[in-house]
């Protein structure tokens, strides 16, 4: 079975080799209080319509546990009948060239997708709440009002600004998506403009008997001496300095899976790589709508100098912050209209069309109104 998180999808091939019949496709929306089932029927062509559905849910046991792909943790507590399979354990059956480390052509970004701090804070990336640009960043980059380079954000404080990562053309770019902080929940993160290679996943430390959370993964070092609940971890690094420059232990550089969305487990991290060969501004963000709208996003500025010039007379788009609306808008003059006269007597007319522009109390003509001798008449012969 699959664990499908918000904003995530799986494409798969089904080998239709089973006996012709009808088979259940079962799902459930995980909710500790009220799980919601989702069901469908896979119907083989040629199967008899009067035959009952002939499939049962797999019976899991400790000898042959059922496999669950994409768990946000390493194992189910107190349930040896289920085995978690992480995305990093998958291998690609397609031959790909994995971007390699090249000196002077390698960038690494640590991005902490979290809601950190001892109190409630906005959804952030490296403790920056993303501020949407008020212009088209692609065609009007110089008009971005509040880029983080000018915000002065530092230390254990939350900033609100347009967070932009500058990526150099044709570099190998390694991302370390992290989830460090107090709020114990996983995050589904997507990257626009690329399918990335998932090279490694690191999980938090759990009690192997009870499954209870102990501490965040120790491969990542957060700056400062704050406790885990208070740390913002906005300037992380590898605990082992030998892991720098793409030399992280345990990377799959042979046949890693390729995705555009990945789940970052609470207290853990995911190592990804791309080749910076797609110029543009690309969003990296949470696929949870409340988190995304609240600022858990960052803008990747990739190979900007390789973008084509903005076409001449290309439309510009701005907002109205700081502009007097009276300068932009004028109140239109009221439109005066002549009211339709109402009378109890048929009105005078010049043409038959005049009769249809009036109403009167005895307007019960079921035929065509005509203007005869200057008076509207109901022509009952039509």
UniProtKB/TrEMBL annotation:
Record bears the keyword Oxidoreductase? yes
- This protein's UniProt keywords: Copper, Metal-binding, Oxidoreductase
Q: Which residue windows are transmembrane per the record?
A: none
* Organism encoding this protein: Magallana gigas
Q: What is this protein called?
A: Plastocyanin-like domain-containing protein
Q: Which GO terms describe its biological process?
A: iron ion transport
Q: Name one GO cellular component term.
A: plasma membrane
Annotated ranges, domain Plastocyanin-like: 149-302
**Coiled-coil annotated residue ranges, if any:** none
What would be an example GO MF term here?
oxidoreductase activity
Q: Does the keyword Metal-binding apply?
A: yes
